[in-house]
Amino acid sequence: MNIVIAIILFSLIILFHELGHFLLAKLNGVQVNEFCLGLGPTIIGFHKGETFYSLKLFPFGGACMMEGEDEDSDSSRAFGKKGVWQRFSIVFAGPFFNFILAWVLSLVILGSVGIDYPTIYQVEDGSPAAEAGIQDGDTILKLGNKNIHFYREISVYTYFHNGERTDVLWEHDGEKYAGSITPRYDEESGRYLFGFQGSYGRQKSGPLRVMQYSFYEVKYWITTTLQSLGKLVTGQLNMNDLSGPVGIVKTIGDTYTASRPDGFFYVFINMINMAILLSANLGVMNLLPLPALDGGRLVFFIIEAIRGKRIDPQKEGMVHYVGLIALMILMVVIMGNDIRKLFM
Do residues 216 and 309 share a domain? Predict the structure, then answer.
C-alpha cells in the first residue's frame, strides 16, 4: 500500500507540472496533440477535441506533446510558429506550476499545524549563544545575510556553514540586538551548534500570516535545494546522496509506514510535507540551464530574444538530444544506486 501511495503522490506532482505546460499552450493557441501521465506504451487513453489524453505503463514522468515542438510543422498553431515570449511562457509554466503547488500545499500544512517561529526555548549555559547575549525567549531574525522565518532554518544554516563565524540579529523584548557567534562542535551530535535548544513549537496564525509564511516555506525548500546542489558540485556530497524515482518512492513509502501508527492526520500531514519538498525540488531541477531540461530551453529563448533571430532548430534539437542522452545515462546510474541501497 505504501508503494502505491508513493507512486500516486509522485505522479500527481509530475501531472501538475505538465498541466502548467498544457494550460499555457492552450492559452497561447498552440495545438496539444497528447497529454499523458507516465512513460512507455499507452495503457488507456481517449480523445477530447484535438488532444489525446493517456495513461502510460510506467508511472514515472509525463508529457505535454505539442504540434511542432520537436519537429517541423506547417500548422499556424505549431509551437515553433509562436513568438519567443509565448514559447518561453509555455516552457516556464511547468516549473512555475510546481512552485504554485508547493505554495498551495504549504497553506494546508501551516494552516493545519501552525508555524515554527524561530523563537528560542532554552539557551545552554556557557554556549556560544549565551556568550553573545542571547536569552531564552529571544527570536532569531537573521543569520549572516539570510533572513530567518522558521526555526528549522537555523539547523539548515549551521549544516551549510559548518563552524563559520556568523553575524546574528535577534529580538529581545521588542528590541533588536546584533552580534557574532562561532558555533561550537558537539561530539554527541557530530555537528556545529550555537547552543540553544528548540522553539516553542508550531503556533497557529491568522490567514494572512499563513499566506505570507507559505511563500517563505516555498522559498525555504528552493534555497535548500540550491544549497544542496552547490554541495554536490563542490564535491561535499556525492552520488550516494542523490535519489531518483526509485529512491523517492521508497522515501515516501517509508514516511507513510512510519506515520501510520500516529493516525490518519499525521499520515496526511507528512504526505503533504513530502509533496511540498518534491514539488519545489522538481521546479528547481527543471529550471537548471541544462540541455533537455526546461531551463536549457529557456536559455535558448533568451538568446533568441537578445539576438532577434531564432537559433537553427536542428542545432538546438541536437543540443537537447545530447543532453537527453546524458540525462538518461545519469538517471540509469542513479536508479541503479537506488536499487543497490534497497538491499544494503
Answer: yes
d(CA 281, CA 221): 7
Task: Please state, in angstroms and rounded to a whole number, the distance separating the CA atoms of residues 317 and 323.
Answer: 10
Tens-digit pLDDT profile for residues 285-315? 999 999 989 999 999 999 999 999 988 888 8
Q: Mean pLDDT score of the chain, rounded to an integer?
A: 90
Looking up cell 550555537 gives: 194
Our answer to whether residue 217 is catalytic in this structure is no
* Integer Cα distance of 86 and 297 in angstroms: 13
Ranges of H-type helices in 234-263:
245-259
Sign of CA dihedral 72, 292, 103, 268: positive
**127 shares a domain with 111:** no
Q: Residue 169: beta bridge partners?
A: 142, 178
pTM more than 0.85 = yes
- The answer to whether position 281 is within a domain reads yes
**Do 109 and 129 have their domain in common?**
no
Cell 546574528, residue located: 168
* Phi/psi at 141 (5° precision): -105, -30
Residue among 18, 67, 69, 153 flagged as catalytic:
18
Query: What's the structural domain count of the chain?
Result: 2
CB distance 28 to 90 below 8 Å? yes
Helical residues (DSSP H) of 29-113, grouped into ranges: 84-113
Residues 6+ apart with CB under 8 A from 332: none
| Number of CB atoms found within 10 A of residue 284's CB | 21
**Residue 299 in domain:** yes
